[in-house]
Amino acid sequence: MIALVVGVVVVLTAANVLENRVINMLIMVILVVGLYVFAGNSGVFSFGQIGFMAIGAYTTAIVRIPPDTKEALFPKLPAIQLSPLGATLLGGAVAALAALLVAIQLMRLSGLAASLGTFAFLNIIYVVASNWSSVSGGSTGLANVPQTTTKYTGLLWVAIAIVIAWLFQLTRQCLRLRASREDEVAAASVGIGIYYERIVAFVLSGFITGIGGALFAEYYGTFNPDAFFVSITFLTVAMLVVGGRLSLSGAVVGTLFITAATEGLRRVEQGVDLGVVTIPARPGLQEVGVALTMLVVLLLRPAGITGGTEIKLPRPPRARVAAARVVEEEAT
Amino acid sequence: MYFAGVKAVDDVDLALDRGEILGLIGPNGAGKTTLVNALSGFQQPTAGTVRIDGEDITGWRPNRLAKKGLARTFQSVRLFPRLSVLDNVAAGALALGISRRKAEERALELLEEMQLTALLGVRGDSLSHGDERRVGILRALATRPTFLLLDEPAAGLNEAESDELVEALKKLPGEFGLGLLVIEHDMRLIMRLSHRVHVTDHGKTIAIGTPAEVRADPAVLEAYLGSKRVRSA
After folding, report:
1. Which of A220, A304, B42, B103 is within CB 3.0–4.6 Å of B93 for a Cys-Cys bond?
2. Is the pLDDT of residue B219 over 70?
3. Which of A186, A193, A325 lies closest to B78 in CB terms?
4. What residues does B2 pair with on adjacent strands?
5. Prediction ipTM score
6. Would residue B149 count as lying in a domain?
7. Is position B135 within any domain?
8. At how many degrees (to 10) do helices B85-93 and B129-141 cross?
9. In-domain check, residue B156
10. What is the pLDDT of residues A148-201, one digit of tens each?
11. B86 within a domain of the structure (yes/no)
12. B56 lies in which domain range?
């Protein structure tokens, strides 16, 4: 909770120099929360969620680029323009629909096979985005998307993503999904199948990730398929693993932690002049740093920084009732 | 029923009524767990049928059987390790197709009945072995089963815990109107608990009857206690 409050304060007071880092971080939080909704609750790691980010980004860009720019640069695209909010929601919705189609097929698979399936999906999206020139701009990508994402809209969508993920955790589907994550055989013995529950989580995850992609498009304005491939997939996975993949708090904490760490490494990477000594530039330090952090966490604290527990939020009424009953009984 | 090429259960005929406790006993390796797996859908029998109220349920998947009113526990308990005790039991109650809130209320009632409310926030993997077994039974009970199969419910319990468990289990058929099938190799526990006892050896039935009848059966004494004990008795 404290970390969240500090995070919000930092976001709102960040100097302009830092602003692009902050907005980038907010988008990462949305992507990692999206990944968590599926991977954290189901126990099946997805390496394909960034594919939904791409779908969200391209959809949003297609309905946001001004019609006259489209006529000049991308003549095959429809000459329509939605509002930023409408475009963001459409990006999320199209990503959710794509997630549904993928899930219907992939969620029949278990464990590793499902994870590999999601990775195959990411590759398909990458290749299609790189070659479908009339719609995606091919490997040069799309440009001139109006840059409407600010730290405020970013923060608002972070809050929405966290609330969606938190509300999902209170549903019966989520408890069933988590039970199957813990022990598929025992879950089956109390009537829990995994197919339907996993589809629900995958679609929700696709929606949130699609929103992340939409905000990404509306922030950078210009992007190409390389933005939605292995390096960002690895980064989001590392953030979730480092924070703790079994809790929503872990998703948020991991993103903040890795962002801070990479920001520090980025500065060192460019070379630092300390007056007495000069640390020469070390290209690639950031990526190696993230990978090493993930390795250290996997080796020393496999459940991540939060250890799979939630940062305490105000308790819902029924938990209070239950706790009160216990106290009552102990008193009598 | 074959298991890895060895005939594990052969020609066993079981009938279980509601309100009844049927004990199934046999030495280690007698095919007891294979039988539970076949009944609860975790292994497919190569021959034979399983029926509930006349309906053939042979080969049904476990999650479908659970909704039909057939629940089971596991010899190794298999709680959901990183879920709380409350969530473990509530996950069972969800089989009734009720809301999460209703499921938690039902879980709470069951935990109160077994006097385990103090544990409701504890993770499944942080329980003592005895509590783990009790929560495992509650998780199965939460599905409101018509028939409950308990696979070695007293394994790993000391004598006092085991006695306590017998007293708790004895109440279940009356309280919940269910038929209880208890699989055990602990003769003492089965004799104290069951209305009827079914003795198997090498996958075959060797005796059926009340505890007193079975105790006196020479075939049982030979298979279970060994001929040496028979002679000395």
Report:
1. B103
2. yes
3. A186
4. B7
5. 0.86
6. yes
7. no
8. 20
9. yes
10. 999 999 999 999 999 999 999 999 999 999 999 999 999 999 999 889 999 999
11. no
12. 2-79+145-232
Sorted by where each begins, the domain ranges of chain A are 2-271+279-331
Helices in chain A by DSSP H: which ranges?
2-13, 16-42, 49-64, 67-73, 84-106, 111-131, 133-136, 151-169, 172-182, 184-189, 195-220, 230-243, 248-269, 285-300, 317-331
- Strands B51-52 and B55-56 come out as antiparallel
Spatial distance between the Cα atoms of A174 and A83, rounded to a whole number of angstroms: 33
CB atoms within 10 A of CB A296: 11
| Residues in chain B closer than 8 A to A179 (CB atoms) | 80, 83, 87-88, 91
Q: Does residue A56 contact residue A92 with C-beta atoms inside 8 Å? A: yes
Is pLDDT at B58 greater than 80 in this prediction?
A: yes
B contact set with A (CB within 8 A): 40, 42, 61-64, 66-67, 71-74, 78-83, 86-88, 90-92, 94-95, 98-101, 103-105, 108, 112, 117-118, 120, 124, 139-140, 142-143
Q: What is the 3-state secondary structure (H, E, C) of chain B?
A: CEECCEECCCCCCCCCCCCCEEEEECCCCCCHHHHHHHHCCCCCCCCCCCEECCEECCCCCHHHHHHHCEEECCCCCCCCCCCEHHHHHHHHHHHHCCCHHHHHHHHHHHHHHCCCHHHCCCEHHHCCHHHHHHHHHHHHHCCCCCEEEEECCCCCCCHHHHHHHHHHHHHHHHHHCCEEEEEECCHHHHHHHCCEEEEEECCEEEEEECHHHHHCCHHHHHHHHCHHHHHHC
At B77, give phi and psi (nearest 5°).
65, -60
Q: What is the largest CA-CA distance in chain A?
A: 80
Task: Give which of B213, B206, B223 is closest to B11, Cα–Cα.
Answer: B206
Polymer length in residues for chain A? 332
Residues A46, A66: Cα–Cα separation, whole Å: 34
Counted domains in chain B: 1
What CATH number does residue B185 fall under? 3.40.50.300
| pLDDT band for position B27 (cuts 50, 70, 90) | confident
Band of residue B90 on the pLDDT scale cut at 50, 70, 90: very high
Which class does domain A2-271+279-331 fall in?
mainly alpha
Mean pLDDT of A246-258: 94
Q: What is residue A219's predicted lDDT score, i.e. its pLDDT?
A: 96
Phi–psi pair at A79, nearest 5 degrees: -85, 50
Residue tagged 């464990």 (tokens): A111
pLDDT tens digits, B109-119: 999 988 899 99
DSSP, collapsed to helix, strand or coil, labels residue A142 as: strand
